[in-house]
Every structure is written in structure tokens, then in C-alpha cells.
Design brief:
The chain is α+β, with helices and mostly antiparallel strands. It is 47% helix and 10% strand. The longest helix is centred in the last third of the chain and has 40 residues, at 314-353.
């Protein structure tokens, strides 16, 4: 399918923000009309399902899927996100080159990195735009964590996949730079779920020790630097998200309430899309995390906070670590109680179904012992994970463990 390239006008790369702001309304209207035409034509063969900062995500539409091979039904497609002011095609092409390079650096094992891709020709592309073909995911990690079907055992297994992926990336000499659950994708094969790290736009080879972190501020390390140890800090927040959802209330309130005196009063939209520890980070003024607002407000506030991170004093950094340690302690306590309650409910259910008699049958006694042993193992594992999470969140990056050592401890 080929679409007229004029549907995708790109502003002159030498144009200044002032030049762009003076673009007349007629040009804007023409662009909007062209984009509408493009999406209309594209949707005849593809369905738009999601977007990120740089890319739009498409899958084959239902008509094509009816006649598609099994392989084609497992494909998704990335195109540059449509934006009047920015040329996202360049960013997406750079990400594709980066993915290929990482793949070459670790050819033997990149099983938990979503690197496999094919660049389509103009004739095959969506709307004549640069198009990458990738494996279609079932969803992202955050979405899966919020599902009531995701039990304790599965959460730990997927977190293990996550840390193996981070280890593989670090072995290639890269820092990820944009840690968050939404950037990890969930795949399903033969009924089994697995996780792969995706979205490598902010990933960079570790060369400049003073490189500034440019990823999501909810997961920024206190030193504000792009590094593999910075990735470990952000992964500590992800570890909390992997564990905490089962004990959050319906609103997803933080397990550590934010005192009104310590609340960030920057006028922004409510943190309705944030849950648990992320809600703490965007609400407490000790952290740099921000929630969504208008694009202009978000960019301006983000720049200000990025500057502040580099000048944070020891007092604020210690405050952050104290809050995060409190959070992990409360998380362990809450999950411990939940696991014990679940055990009690299972035993009561077994007893209710048992024939009434003076003694518990040998078979039932064995089942109760097995449940008790399973819960005891989960509680022991929970304690170890919480201790490990605290190490990942240490303020001093030199004292944090590596992703590889964390991965080994979880296996």
C-alpha cells in the first residue's frame, strides 16, 4: 500500500520554535485534513491500537486477519507518531538502528529484549511512512500487573524476565534510561506469558559517566545520571509495582500516606492514572516525579525538575530513601497479612467440605501441610525480595547491586 508522501509534511529542520508558532492556520488545517485522509486509507488495511512518544502501533484489520497466516496474526507494526512540530521518523529510525546494534552485541541471548524487527519497503509500509514489523504483544507489564488474574507467583516470574532482559542489555554495554512498567511488553506463547523489555529510544552505550537521565521522572535515580546503576534504582520502583497491586485499594492509594504539609502543590491533573508507589512519588515534594498535564506545562515543569535533580542536597536524598524504605516495609507487612489470610481461607474451605468427624483425615491433613509449606515459602521469598528492593533503591549508586546479581538472587 502506497500513500502520497505529501500527506506527511515535515517542517523545515532549520525552523525555529518562533517560525513554527507563526505557521498560519491554513497550513494547520491542511495538515489536519491530510492526516485524516491518511488514517482513513490506512485503516482499510490496519487498525491503530496504541502510541508512544515516538511511535504509533498498528495491527492488521479484521478483514485481512481472516485470510492471514498464523505468522501474520502475530505481527504488529510501528510507524512514526504523527506530530506537526516534530519529525518522529528520525527518532524511530534511530531506535531501529540501535535495536540492530544491540542484537549484534549479544547474539547468543536477547530472549527478554524485544529486538527482533523488519523494516518494510515503501510498497508494504503503512501510509508510505517508515514502518517496522515486530512481534505483536499481548499487552504491557503495567496493564498485566493491574489484572486481578495476575497472582503472586506470576508477578515474581515476570519480574524475573524483566531483570534478565535488563541484564542482557547491560551486557551489551548499554543503559536503558527509561525504566517504567509500560515499556516492558507481555507475550503469550502456548498459554504461557513472558516479558521483554521494549522501547529503546533513551538507551545509550555507557561511555559518558556524566550523561544526564532523560527518561520518566517517576523512576529517576537520585543522582540524576544515565547509568546501569540508575537503571537498577528505577527497577526497584518497578519491583514494588510488581508486588503491591494485590494490596492496594480500588483507588490505588499509596501504602504510605502523604502528609498535607509534604504534598506537592504544583497545579496539575489529579494522579488518577497513578497507583501505589508511583502515586507517592508524584504527590510528595521530596521526589521529582510529575503527572500528566498540558504538554506545555509538562515540558516546562519537567525541565525545571531536571535542573533541580542535579542540585539536590543530601537532606532531600535521605528523605527519599527513608520514604521508599518505609514503603517497602509497609508492603511486606501488607502482603504477609494477605498471604496468611489466603492460607486461612483455603484451610477453612477444605474443612467445610470434610465429612464431620472427630479427627481430620490423613488426606486432608496432608493438603493443609502442603498449603502451609507453600505459604511459608512465599513469605520467605517476599522477605528476601523486599530486602533486595531496598538495596536496589540505595541512594549511593556504587552500593546498588548489578542487574545480573539481582537476577541470580531471584532464580
Amino acid at each position: 500500500m502506497e500513500i502520497n508522501q505529501n500527506y506527511f509534511p515535515i517542517p523545515d529542520s532549520s525552523a525555529t520554535p518562533a517560525d513554527l508558532s507563526r505557521a498560519n492556520q491554513n497550513e494547520r488545517n491542511n495538515f489536519a485534513t491530510a492526516m485524516q485522509k491518511t488514517h482513513t486509507v490506512a485503516k482499510k488495511s490496519f487498525n491503530f491500537i496504541a502510541h508512544g512518544a515516538v511511535k504509533d502501533v498498528w495491527v492488521l484489520d479484521k478483514t485481512r486477519l481472516q485470510n492471514a497466516s498464523t505468522e501474520e496474526t502475530k505481527q504488529a507494526f510501528y510507524t512514526p507518531r504523527a506530530n506537526f512540530f516534530l519529525n518522529q521518523q528520525k527518532e524511530l529510525k534511530n531506535e531501529a538502528k540501535k535495536m540492530s546494534k544491540i542484537q549484534q552485541l549479544i547474539p547468543d541471548d536477547h530472549s527478554n529484549l524485544a529486538l527482533d524487527h523488519t523494516i518494510l519497503s515503501n510498497d508494504e509500509s503503512i501510509g508510505g511512512k517508515f514502518t517496522m514489523k515486530v512481534e505483536k504483544a499481548k499487552g504491557d507489564f503495567e496493564e498485566t500487573l493491574r489484572s486481578p488474574k495476575t497472582n503472586f507467583k506470576l508477578r515474581i516470574r515476570l519480574m524475573g524476565d524483566y531483570l534478565r532482559g535488563l541484564t542482557q542489555l547491560h551486557k551489551a554495554g548499554y543503559a536503558y534510561g527509561d525504566i517504567k512498567p509500560e515499556n516492558s511488553l507481555i507475550y503469550e506463547n502456548d498459554g504461557k506469558l513472558s516479558l521483554k523489555l521494549a522501547d529503546f529510544g533513551q538507551s545509550k552505550e555507557v561511555k559518558d559517566k556524566n550523561a544526564r537521565y532523560k527518561g520518566n521522572l517517576r523512576f529517576v535515580p537520585p543522582e540524576g545520571k544515565l547509568s546501569q546503576k540508575g537503571d537498577v534504582f528505577g527497577s526497584g520502583i518497578v519491583m514494588i509495582r510488581a508486588l503491591e497491586e494485590e494490596v492496594l485499594n480500588e483507588k490505588g492509594d499509596s501504602l504510605v500516606p502523604v502528609d498535607i504539609k509534604e504534598r506537592d502543590h504544583t497545579p496539575i491533573h489529579p494522579t488518577k492514572n497513578r497507583r501505589g508507589v508511583e502515586k507517592l512519588i508524584v504527590e510528595h515534594r521530596a521526589f521529582a516525579g510529575i503527572d500528566s498535564g498540558s504538554l506545555g506545562s509538562k515540558i516546562f515543569r519537567r525541565l525545571l525538575r531536571m535542573v533541580k535533580i542535579t542540585s539536590w542536597g543530601e537532606k532531600k536524598i535521605q528523605k527519599q530513601q527513608k520514604l521508599l524504605n518505609q514503603y517497602v516495609d509497609q508492603l511486606e507487612l501488607s502482603l504477609h497479612s494477605k498471604l496468611n489470610l489466603a492460607l486461612s481461607n483455603k484451610i477453612n474451605a477444605l474443612l467445610e467440605n470434610e465429612d464431620k468427624g472427630e479427627e481430620i483425615s490423613e488426606g486432608l491433613s496432608q493438603k493443609i501441610q502442603e498449603l502451609d509449606k507453600e505459604t511459608e515459602g512465599q513469605i520467605s521469598q517476599l522477605k528476601e525480595l523486599c530486602q533486595l528492593t531496598k538495596k536496589m533503591l540505595l541512594a549511593d549508586p556504587n552500593k546498588r547491586p548489578t542487574a545480573e546479581s539481582i537476577s541470580h538472587q531471584m532464580n
